[in-house]
């Protein structure tokens, strides 16, 4: 079935694949660009010759001002409307260019090597179609689920919203083996897929991160090396995607362990375990538990794989059959040269009882149906300069025991997506 569909798309979209193949061939066999084309590493300095981070003021204070712009396009070969349900995040609109992220940040990284106390922090401001998925209850969204900020109301048909996905203070204390503390609002430590656009390989998200993981936390995290190559993180956060303490006993335990073998490149291996337990979002009668395990191994300097497993479950008062969800994701990456990398991803996500997709408000998914979701993705990262990246990908999704695609009429879909990321500063 998959082979037949790919052949049909290939025959009907020859120009699309011809362009993709041309880019791949030219980039793979050409020499790396001269240094004058790859430096500096941000678009503003290339266009203006000015870099604010090189001023005496910024360097004396140890500040870094950064940002990026990310925009993308998706064509769904099996959609009869404007949406790519159940891919309802990042690449959720069909045949429409999305301004995914305009993200600006100001950061002062703490010095963890100097053996002295140090203070830092970071503030991010994001605007775009990705922003609603980083918003938190009590900050950008009211407890009733309505937009709070002026000019960003429910009556607006603009897909682009404003968010403050991160603002936190960071302190390094030279006690024990060195403790780094973070206080404020920040991205989760769970899983592998990164929410900031420049930090990930694929444009489209996995089901596991979309339906099974938090997008933000508010609270405190403490990290410290235990022994060589082993570190621990523990903290308390105000649930999933929740900013204000709007319910009793809202605090969740969060923690993780990270181990690596101390090797860089060929043979490098790391394992990360993270977990969270407590009351999620606005549900006073629910206790949620979730863990994630990520294994990253470099077979060679150029080839590495990442394997991830997540499992989450809700314990609800007066409910015998607690909902739960779990997923397995495998990634393979190969760096052809400094300008071109290829990758593939395969995922299985199980939504027991259909609770997670139902709570996310996904259209065309029957409520209360346990469903297996599968996805295969193949993509490229084309990097002609250090400040510009193009990421085309082809993705095939299918489901068992449900018809979640094309307004509930199909059990599979095929999509082509491409996005670009420009490093501004």
Q: Can you count the helices?
A: 7
Query: How many beta-strand runs?
Result: 16
Separation of the first and last Cα atoms: 46 Å
What order do the SSEs take from the amino end to the carboxyl end, as H and E?
A: HHHHHEEEEEHEEEEEEEEHEEE
Mean pLDDT: 84
> Rg to the nearest angstrom?
22 Å
Low-confidence sequence ranges: 6-38, 150-156
Assembly state of the chains shown: single chain
Helix content: 10-25%
Task: Please state how the strands of the largest beta sheet are arranged side by side.
Answer: 1-2-3-4-5-6-7-8-9-10-11-12-13-14-15-16
Sketch the major β-sheet: 16 strands, antiparallel, barrel
Strand content: 35-45%
Structural class by sheet pairing and helices: mainly beta
Net shape: globular
Question: Mind explaining what this structure looks like?
Answer:
This protein has 425 residues and is mostly beta strands. It has 7 helices and 16 strands. The N and C termini lie far apart (46 Å). Residues 6-38 and 150-156 have low confidence and may be disordered.
């Amino acid at each position: 079935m998959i082979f037949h569909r790919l052949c049909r798309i290939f025959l009907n979209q020859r120009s699309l694949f011809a362009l993709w193949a041309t880019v791949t061939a030219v980039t793979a066999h050409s020499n790396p660009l001269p240094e004058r084309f790859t430096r500096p590493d941000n678009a503003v300095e290339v266009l203006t010759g000015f870099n604010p981070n090189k001023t005496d003021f910024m360097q004396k204070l140890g500040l870094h001002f950064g940002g990026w712009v990310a925009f993308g396009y998706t064509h769904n070969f099996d959609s009869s409307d404007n949406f790519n349900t159940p891919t309802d995040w990042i690449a959720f609109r069909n045949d429409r260019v999305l301004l995914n992220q305009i993200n600006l940040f100001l950061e002062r990284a703490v010095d963890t090597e100097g053996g002295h106390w140090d203070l830092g922090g970071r503030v991010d401001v994001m605007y775009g179609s990705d922003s609603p998925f980083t918003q938190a209850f009590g900050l950008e969204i009211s407890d009733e689920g309505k937009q709070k900020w002026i000019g960003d109301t429910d009556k607006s048909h603009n897909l682009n919203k404003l968010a403050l996905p991160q603002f936190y203070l960071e302190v390094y204390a030279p006690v024990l083996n060195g403790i780094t503390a973070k206080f404020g609002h920040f991205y989760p430590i769970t899983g592998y897929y990164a929410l900031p656009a420049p930090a990930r390989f694929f444009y489209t998200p996995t089901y596991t991160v979309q339906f099974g993981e938090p997008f933000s936390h508010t609270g405190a995290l403490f990290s410290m090396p235990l022994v060589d190559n082993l570190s621990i993180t523990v903290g308390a956060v105000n649930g999933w995607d929740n900013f204000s303490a709007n319910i009793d006993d809202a605090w969740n335990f969060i923690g993780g362990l990270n181990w690596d073998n101390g090797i860089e490149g060929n043979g490098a291996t790391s394992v990360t375990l993270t977990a969270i337990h407590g009351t999620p979002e606005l549900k006073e009668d629910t206790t949620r538990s979730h863990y994630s395990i990520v294994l990253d191994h470099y077979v060679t300097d150029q080839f590495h794989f990442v394997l991830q497993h997540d499992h989450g479950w809700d314990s609800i008062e007066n409910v015998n059959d607690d909902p739960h969800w779990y997923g397995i994701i495998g990634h393979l990456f190969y760096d052809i040269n400094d300008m071109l990398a290829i990758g593939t991803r395969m995922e299985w996500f199980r939504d027991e009882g259909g609770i997670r997709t139902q709570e996310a408000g996904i259209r065309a998914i029957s409520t209360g149906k346990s469903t297996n979701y599968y996805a295969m993705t193949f993509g490229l990262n084309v990097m002609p300069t250090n400040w510009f990246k193009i990421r085309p990908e082809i993705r095939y999704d299918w489901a068992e025991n449900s018809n979640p695609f094309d307004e509930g009429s199909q059990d599979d879909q095929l999509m082509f997506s491409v996005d670009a990321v420009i490093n501004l500063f």
